[in-house]
Amino acid sequence: MAELPRLVFTGNVIVDIVMTVDRMPEPGGDVIASSSGLTAGGGFNTMVAAQRDGLPVVFAGQYGTGMFGSVVRTAIADAGFELAQSGVPDVDSGYTVALVDASTERTFVTAVGAEGLLTRADLDRVAVRPDDLVYVSGYSLAHPVNAASLPGWLESLPGEARVLMDPSPLIDTFPGSLVDRVLARTDLLSANAREARLMTGVGDLAVAAVALAARTRGGAAIVRDGAAGCWVAGPGASTEATLVPGVPVDAVDSNGAGDAHGGVLAAAISRGDDLLTAARRANAAAAIAVTRRGPATAPTSVEIDRALAGCTEQSGLVRR
Where are the alpha helices (DSSP H) in 184-296? Predict the structure, then answer.
């Protein structure tokens, strides 16, 4: 029997300290949170989304051995992900303070830990199969050790293995040569609107999607545009960018929406869906996620199927 494709996730899992506030405090000010929580976050949310939509997960990133590292290890074990690394001795995992305001926008402050110490030797422990999909997060590239390790390792992967890159909000801080090298081994880039504009200098997201697709090995890019949906450019979509509309919902918390989109996108691509079908499914997953409070709010396959059954996105496709 053939082995199932897997998501090999090289990004970071850290701890999210999430607080809901009516408004952001002014400099030097203070506000009282209406709710708070401490959970595994970062790339954990993407892996949960992929697994809930049927894609087995291998966590290839590093993690720590302190208090926050314990939260990460427990979450990974409870989720049933395959763990590739043994952890970094005497270094804790990092954490993020996430503030979610009344508009559902979120603001982050992050402290880096063991997740920033992923070496080439660590990555070489991961046996990537030809059918696997490797997920690269720009948050990893922000750390010098990870940034030195990932490009060469990606270049050593089996040619058939696909790579999905999510550039992260930090993309404009990376050396251009690093970004170009990773994109040269990327089959699909998935960026949000801000990231796409930073990477291209273009305000029109349809134009940005086409420009980004041209920079990848696979010639494919998706640019997420919040509630409007996402622009898709590349093989199986069209010679132009195509807007796949979002699913209308009443959002209560946008934290984790991009993670849900990315994980379900990976699951759909791994099953063999074309880009438009995969984008439509990812849009539905993200829409469901924002109706729930908390970071790891990705829906199950059944919930996504139910949402899609009630939508007519195909009739609303826009090409530019």
Answer: 193-200, 205-213, 257-270, 275-289
